[in-house]
# Entry
Amino acid sequence: MGQQLKEERMRIEELSQGLMALRCMQVRLTKEFEDFTGFSLSRYLILVYLMDHDKCLQMELAKAVGIDKAAITRHLKVLEEKGYVMRERDGREVLVCLTDEGKSCMQGCTCKDKEMDVFLLDEEIALFESFGLPLFDGIVYGRKSIREFDESVKITQREMAQILQEACLAPSSVNLQPWRFVVVESVEGKKKLEPLVMFNGVQNTTSSAMILIFGDLQCYEKADTIYSKAVKHGVMSEARKKKALETFVPIYKGFDETKMESVVKIDCSLAAMQLMLVARRHGYDTNAIGGFEEDKLAKTFGLDPNRFIPVMIVAIGKAKEQGHDSIRLDVDEVVSFV
Ligand SMILES: Cc1cc2nc3c(=O)[nH]c(=O)nc-3n(C[C@H](O)[C@H](O)[C@H](O)COP(=O)(O)O)c2cc1C
# Structure
């Protein structure tokens, strides 16, 4: 059997085991739910809907709860026999409502003094994690540079903001987050960028956006804002904030230009990497670009070149080409164990 076929079969086997385990988990949790509430899941959902809607059509109820005509009739018959619901005919329609007994039973359901045990078991957590793995594999190991994108796909500013917010979860030295992004997405913006991107014209023309990543050489100016936010979120004490400000801000201010540039470039590169992975999580691909006119980028986009240094451009969009497998040195050529 070919290697590819073998791998495919293994993946299907893993998936079938995962799905079976999910089914077992559903059975266990549903039983837990039924023991706690005294109702099957469908009947509970029917009662919840009726709690929120004084009187409704049986058809409407079936649709809202997502069960078919035969099943709703069966469930309502049982609930009626128990005295929890009432049905009445209105011409061809059937109207349903909760009885007082049904209402008080529902209130009792949520006021029990015991707690519902809906916690996942260890093996169930492991199962979820194992499902997360292929997701991780696809995002991380499937990333490759894409240089031609589907021009018709635009990323909304809302999604772009989300992507960048997630990219900003990258770590940075003393959490100063020196990255600043300019998202070049308009025709005019791309035109301005065109003469600066050297041999990377296709990415500029076809991508949803070219994200310019700059490092702020005065990033320490935001130290107070950042640490105050940390205090507000309860992850830093007021005393630690004071100490951090007194310690780190003078150190940063004392860096010479070369050191400062190197510090912000390291942080911004981590954000760039995170951005490329987050993009894949959102269904997009990227190309890291270092080939551009460094000395012109900030000024062209209205930034002070003495303060904002260009680190990288990341082209982002829906892939139009497949890209090729990443070729890497073997691990023993780049690692030494000491
Ligand atoms: C800092 C940096 C600068 C890069 N600059 C360019 C560039 O200007 N144009 C380009 O087409 N690719 C550029 N690349 C992409 C690399 O060529 C690519 O990452 C490398 O060949 C490995 O391929 P892969 O990304 O598909 O794994 C750059 C990558 C990095 C990290």
